[in-house]
Amino acid sequence: MRMLLLLIFGLMIASILAILVIKPFTSSDGRDSGAVTHGPIEQPEPKP
């Protein structure tokens, strides 16, 4: 019983930490990687 409570609390804390840690990275990387990927992908083939 005690282990279940500890497990649930651990998972809650881990998920909150994951959200706090991942959110800034995804918001900043999303725009950066979007700009970076759109550049090369729009002009992938120079004349062969």
Task: Please provide a brief summary of the model.
This protein is mainly α and 48 residues long.
Explained architecture:
It is a single chain. The protein is an all-alpha fold and 48 residues long. Helix content is 85%, strand content 0%. It has 1 helix and no strands. It is elongated and about 65 Å long. The mean pLDDT is 73.
Give a quick set of tags describing it.
mainly alpha, 0% strand, 48 residues
Number-wise, the strands total 0
Distance between the termini: 67 Å
Radius of gyration: 20 Å
Overall pLDDT score: 73
Q: Order of SSEs, N→C?
A: H
* Count of separate DSSP helical elements: 1
Give the % helix: over 70%
The global form is: elongated
Low-confidence stretches: none
Strand portion: under 5%
Multimeric organization: single chain
Structural class: mainly alpha
Biggest pleated-sheet summary? none
Helix-strand blueprint:
Layout: H1 2-42
Region (Disordered): 26-48
